[in-house]
Amino acid sequence: MRMMGMAMHVIRTDGFLALYNGLSASLCRQMTYSLTRFGIYESAKNHLGKGKQGPPPFYQKVLLGAAGGFAGGFVGTPADMVNVRMQNDMKQPPAQRRK
Questions:
Q1: How many C-beta atoms surround the C-beta of residue 69 within 10 A?
Q2: From first to last of its 99 residues, what are the pLDDT tens digits of the chain?
Q3: How far apart are CA 76 and CA 32, in angstroms?
Q4: Of 25, 21, 28, residue with least CA distance to 91
Q5: How far is residue 99's CA from residue 82's CA, in Å, rounded to a whole number?
Q6: Among residues 32, 28, 45, 30, which one has the least CA distance to residue 71?
């Protein structure tokens, strides 16, 4: 099915609000992953650039980006698991759903 066909199927079978199933888990995942990643990168970049003239060199930015991405992935993994489980919960029979 295409996107509109799938959206219409979801609306017909489960109602309009079913389009937002898993939204809270998705936002939680984005907030934990992205905020950690950007926070580590920006904080470390500002710390390295304090004593020198200008921004840190490119290789340091690459290393900071890798460290921030690693930490963000580590922190965001539990929220990612919750996101997947909440979105797949609707496939379960009503008696077996985690809600």
A1: 15
A2: 799 998 899 899 888 988 887 788 788 888 999 999 999 999 988 888 777 677 788 999 999 999 999 999 999 898 888 878 877 877 788 888 777
A3: 5
A4: 21
A5: 11
A6: 32
